[in-house]
């Protein structure tokens, strides 16, 4: 994400936006470099909404109207450099080939995550919720399946009952219902683009079943977001053909640490696993 995109995200966070307004916000973040120069009609067309919706969106952010919002965005543009070229963004405008630029972009996402973690309260709350849920269902479909599987693999070493939900289909709701009957109170979801409709439907079913939702998503404007959920954003990289997800993976490990802090027997479980692994010769090192 560019520095302009990060600034837009910070401006939008903390505002309760309607689904239509979240659509506009997401469009602006994706077109962050162009956003200060778009008319309300152009932005409406790009976001697939009406022009009055763009006006209402600006008012929801605290501006008198869209012209005031656009003026604010233009005033926030970086100053030109000495040679007249636009100033570098917050990510530093790192040079290099396409592969290096992708790595630099991921480093920027990790820095953004570190800044968000300056307030540890949301992650600490998530850790308490995850530790208290017995069993703990962990959902991640398609692109997010790897994140869910990695979390579940490590979580099972310290949590007594982790249930991985990484396949959609007609059985998914059944498995969610079974977790609720067994006593689950919280569902952890990894939701990454492109967001499967099955993920959105599964989360709605989980909410109706009474589960509290903790979600790691690429943006606070992701289509899985709902009021009342505990959503923790971690940006994905989009400079390569396929998205990169270093930041969501790191946030997953941070959540593991927060959960371990809330499980009094976590260290004992880890030591027991290490002892049994040594007896069985599981690892070469």
Annotation keywords:
single chain, 285 residues, alpha/beta, five-stranded parallel sheet, 12 helices, 52% helix, globular
Report on the architecture of this protein.
By secondary structure, this protein is an alpha/beta fold. It is built from 12 helices and 5 strands. Strands 2-1-3-4-5 form a 5-stranded parallel sheet, with helices on both faces. Helix 10 links the parallel strand 3 and strand 4. Helix 7 crosses helix 11. The two termini are 38 Å apart.
Q: How large, in whole angstroms, is the Cα Rg?
A: 21 Å
End-to-end separation in angstroms reads 38 Å
Major β-sheet profile:
5 strands, parallel
Strand residues, percent: 5-15%
Unreliably modeled segments: 80-94
How much helicity do the residues have?
Answer: 40-55%
Q: Write down the secondary-structure element order.
A: HHHHHHHEHEHEHEEHH
């Amino acid at each position: 994400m560019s520095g302009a995109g990060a600034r837009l995200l910070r401006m939008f966070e903390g505002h309760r936006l309607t689904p239509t307004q979240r659509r506009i916000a997401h469009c602006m973040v994706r077109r962050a470099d162009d956003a200060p120069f778009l008319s309300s009609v152009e932005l409406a067309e790009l976001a697939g909404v009406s022009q009055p919706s763009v006006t209402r969106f600006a008012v929801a952010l605290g501006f008198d109207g869209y012209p005031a919002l656009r003026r604010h965005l233009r005033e926030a543009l970086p100053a030109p450099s000495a040679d007249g070229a636009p100033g570098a963004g917050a990510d530093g405008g790192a040079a290099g080939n396409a592969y290096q630029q992708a790595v630099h972009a991921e480093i920027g996402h990790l820095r953004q995550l570190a800044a968000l973690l300056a307030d540890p309260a949301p992650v600490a709350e998530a850790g308490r919720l995850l530790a208290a849920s017995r069993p703990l269902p962990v959902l991640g479909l398609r692109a997010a399946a790897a994140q869910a599987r990695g979390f579940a693999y490590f979580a099972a070493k310290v949590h007594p009952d982790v249930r991985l939900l990484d396949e959609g289909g007609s059985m998914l709701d059944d498995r969610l219902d079974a977790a609720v009957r067994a006593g689950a109170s919280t569902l952890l979801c990894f939701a990454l683009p492109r967001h499967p409709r099955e993920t959105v439907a599964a989360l709605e079913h989980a909410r109706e079943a009474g589960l509290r939702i903790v979600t790691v998503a690429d943006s606070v404007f992701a289509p899985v977001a709902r009021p009342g959920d505990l959503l923790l954003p971690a940006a994905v990289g989009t400079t390569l053909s396929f998205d990169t997800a270093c930041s969501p993976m790191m946030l997953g490990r941070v959540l593991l640490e927060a959960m371990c802090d809330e499980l009094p027997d976590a260290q004992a479980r880890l030591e027991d696993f290490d002892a049994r692994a040594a007896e069985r010769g599981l690892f070469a090192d």
